[in-house]
Task: inverse folding
């Protein structure tokens, strides 16, 4: 164990409720601001450039998700290791992982740049279904984002590091500055300088650059154990295998969400109900609503990962157990309340997005079915996050990835074949139910093998 002195760890002391609030709320703010920025950017493109530009950017969404997934792969994997090292007072080990994460981030982003240079034209043409004009705009937009992706990767690594250092306030302040500057940059570049989709991409890249400057200033002058000097004092290939293994579940989760959405669109085309455009519009509204509903849950899960990781690393078993209990309880209450609101107000809520009564009617029909098992989603997400936090990559992957890949995607096509278009919306709740059963099996096996209460709680009764 390192003998270096460390600053007091806020996660291993004090009331857990207050620690959860202090950790989760800034993260939720960060994610909400990111979502707002994306909406404003889309509005600028639609108003000042035109629908074709907005369509080109929309076609690049799956590829954009690939960048997010890869950045998450590195940052999330590092976060799991970093929380336990900092919680256990292992400063040298934490610095080594921090340096290794930067090396991996740069390696992955450079590889992404090379792949786009080779296959970018073919991929964008495929996404645009052969339309040269759409493909050209998409290639410009995504090419700029890929070129500056090393900046995003490094910022993502440092954002997760700030969270594990207990600097969530700084992280939230930085995100606020970045989001506001992104909107400002985009307005100038799109509305005033008339740079179109290139302006949107450059505005985003400039915001990433501002974030990098803020991080560099903190790592150089701020009170932190993870200074820039760690990047050349420790090997840039430290813990790559562990980072990749621990980051894979959350990273593949992002890809799974994109694949599930694509599967629903394909299934709707196959179902051919005669109201495809209306149903897709309604599904888009439901997706936006569910994204915003999911943000607090994701913030809570990241707070749980940090708190449990620190306490588990410090071998404070009872406190890590209590943190898990609180996380599961909060997630259940939140998801149950959210489900009640979404079911009860599905129709009225839809009119906030559209005035078309047919689309609103589809939202009111689809939403209650899709969220029928949402009350279980929160606790299951907390359990998967717990396994990631304690370094159990295998169980974390099983619980995080089974729903989209093993259950949801096959069920979308199987249930639509059996029940028609209505079966498409039944696939989500059915997948959640199957995941609940799988989690019970995993926890029962772990309880028997390791003699843990409920397969989770390590402290003695």
Result:
């Amino acid at each position: 164990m390192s003998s270096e002195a460390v600053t007091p760890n806020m996660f291993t002391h004090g009331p857990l409720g207050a620690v959860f609030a202090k950790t989760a709320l800034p993260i939720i703010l960060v994610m909400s601001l990111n979502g707002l920025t994306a909406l404003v950017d889309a509005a600028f493109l639609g108003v000042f450039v035109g629908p074709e530009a907005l369509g080109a950017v929309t076609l690049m969404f799956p590829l954009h998700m690939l960048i997010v997934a890869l950045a998450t792969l590195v940052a999330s994997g590092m976060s799991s290791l970093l929380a336990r090292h900092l919680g256990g007072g292992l400063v040298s080990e934490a610095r080594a992982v921090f340096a290794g994460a930067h090396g991996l981030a740069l390696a992955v982003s450079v590889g992404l740049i090379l792949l786009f240079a080779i296959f970018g034209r073919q991929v964008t043409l495929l996404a645009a279904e052969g339309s040269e004009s759409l493909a050209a705009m998409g290639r410009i937009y995504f090419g700029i984002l890929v070129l500056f992706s090393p900046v995003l990767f490094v910022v993502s690594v440092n954002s997760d590091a700030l969270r594990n250092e207990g600097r969530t306030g700084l992280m939230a302040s930085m995100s606020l500055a970045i989001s506001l500057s992104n909107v400002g940059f985009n307005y100038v570049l799109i509305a005033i300088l008339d740079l179109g989709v290139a302006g949107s991409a450059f505005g985003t890249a400039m915001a990433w650059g501002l974030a990098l400057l803020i991080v560099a200033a903190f790592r150089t002058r701020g009170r932190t154990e993870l200074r820039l000097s760690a990047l050349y004092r420790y090997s840039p290939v430290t813990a790559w295998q562990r980072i990749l293994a621990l980051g894979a579940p959350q990273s593949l989760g992002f890809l799974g969400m994109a694949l599930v959405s694509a599967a629903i669109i394909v299934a709707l085309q196959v179902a051919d109900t005669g109201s495809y455009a209306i149903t897709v519009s309604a599904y888009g509204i439901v997706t936006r609503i569910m994204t915003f509903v999911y943000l607090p849950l994701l913030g809570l899960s990241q707070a749980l990962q940090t708190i449990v990781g620190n306490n588990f690393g410090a071998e404070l078993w009872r406190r890590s157990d209590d943190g898990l209990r609180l996380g599961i309880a909060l997630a259940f209450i939140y998801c149950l309340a959210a489900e009640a609101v979404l079911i009860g107000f599905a129709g009225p809520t839809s009119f906030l997005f559209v005035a078309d009564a047919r689309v609103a009617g589809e939202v009111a029909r689809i939403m209650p079915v899709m969220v029928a098992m949402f009350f279980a989603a929160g606790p299951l997400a907390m359990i998967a996050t717990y396994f990631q936090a304690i370094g159990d990559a295998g169980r974390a992957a099983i619980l995080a990835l089974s729903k989209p890949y093993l259950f949801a995607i096959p069920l979308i096509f199987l249930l639509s074949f059996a029940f028609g278009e209505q079966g498409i919306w039944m696939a989500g709740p059915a997948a959640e139910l199957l995941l609940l059963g799988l989690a019970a099996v995993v926890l029962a096996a772990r309880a028997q093998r390791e003699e843990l209460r409920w397969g989770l709680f390590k402290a003695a009764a």
